[in-house]
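pinging the channel bc i need a second pair of eyes. not urgent but kinda urgent?? the chain im working w is below, pasted from the shared doc
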Amino acid sequence: AACHLLAGAVTSPEASLAARGRMAVKLGRAALSSLDHGYVLALLRRILDEEALPAAVRGELRLYVGAVLDNHAGQASAGLAEIALAWMNRALEASRRAHDPELKTAVLVNRATLLMHVGDPEAWRAVLEIPRDSGSPGERRQQLRASSNLAHACTCIGHYAHAESFLATGRRLWAEVSDPYLATCLDSTSVL
């Protein structure tokens, strides 16, 4: 429902460029938890092509497009192209300057997931950098997302014992966070 409402607001002719940019970022975030992502991807790409957005907004939108392509649309190569490794380090630096614990956790999750998927030995250190005992609901959701993403990545690269450990952590966190999309991710990774 949030995606549909935000999509309508983003395309509203009365919205200013700044408002469209803010709403597009919220739409990208909402798409990460949505099962219906096709129209959101098309809209976000159109916004990236047509709008004269600030660099920070463009970068965040590209991050969401890449994550949705990789995680939801089954287009890992296209998703990873949107989230190039060199940009990941820049995103990490920007998240530290933002002083937003949820954003910082989200970027750390993305970094660890990306490194794990490409088999970079640095991935294990990146996993340890993800906060484990955060209090806010948003940070807990990011930790649940980390468990789900890392379980999937470990399954894909053959680290099955680690995948089981991440799944167990994810199931424990899901009891606290209760995100239907991430529950589906945990279940599908468990089957895989």
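so The chain is about 75% helix and 0% strand. and The radius of gyration is 16 Å. — does that match what u expected or am i reading it wrong
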